[in-house]
Design a protein that fits this description.
Elements (H helix, E strand, L loop, with lengths): L6 E4 L5 H12 L3 E6 L2 H12 L5 E5 L5 H15 L4 E4 L14 H28 L5 E5 L2 H5 L5 H20 L6 E7 L13 H8 L6 H6 L5 H11 L11 E5 L2 E5 L16 H12 L19
Parallel strand pairs: 1-2, 1-4, 2-3, 4-5, 5-6, 6-7
Antiparallel strand pairs: 7-8
Amino acid sequence: MSLHGKVAVVTGSGRGLGLAYAQELARQGASVVINDVDAATADAAVKSITDAGGSAVAVVAPVGPTETAEQLVQTAVDTFGRLDILVTNAGVLRDTVLWKMSDDDFDTVIGVHLRGTFTCVRAAATYMRANEIPGRIICIGSPTGQRGNFGQTNYAAAKAGIVGMVRTWALELKKAGITTNAVIPVAATAMTATVPYFAAAVEADEKGEAMPAFFRHDLGFGTSDDVAGLIAFLASDAAAGVSGQAIGIGGDRLQLWSHPEAVATAYREGGWTYEALVEGFGEAVGELQSVGEKFPPLPEDLQR
């Protein structure tokens, strides 16, 4: 087993994608600390792993506060003797358009996704550095953080921020041999189940049937299990040379997202005044960049 003897913490792992990550890490030999805010959900997740012959324990606490981050690390050390892997998956949604988004809507999502990722990675990296463990830190991003999405100001900010932190941490933790990467998953979740465009794929998944090839191949949209293999790979010694990357996965598709780079550069002696920009901005920068995800039309046989 490739992760035999390793210990992992997976936040937000009571159900959905997080549970799939935890189960795959356990299947590959790691002992796992499950985290959820609901005790029954966390206990069921632990049981799913132990019933399959794995080792797991639960921490029931909300992600965000420093106290939770420290508790997760300490539980891994106290229960299994060490910590090698951290997967920051915990998250919440408070979707609404900008002019209707409250302070609480914004702060709640930022607190769990962005602050929670920061506090958990800080606690794990501190432990790994102090104990000279070449750990693996895997933070979960989203296409929304890469491209933007209507009604998700808070979520887009958090997920974009996570990728920015990952790139910074890859630099800061390189000397310690700790890798840090972001995974951008595309899969059937409670959120995508409410989107009519994905109805045929979600229905097939719920029935235990294979999703249509259009979703798996053309859209890179699949199941939670389709994402879990990448999590286990990035947690393994095989990925020791992979750090600071944003890697997309879903269905049959694997993607490496680019880091932001300038796509057009123009110079003007004396600088770019207001008048010069009015006259020459379009010619100087060329075609503007697109925003948001753009999906192809559904084939007729998949329309609901």
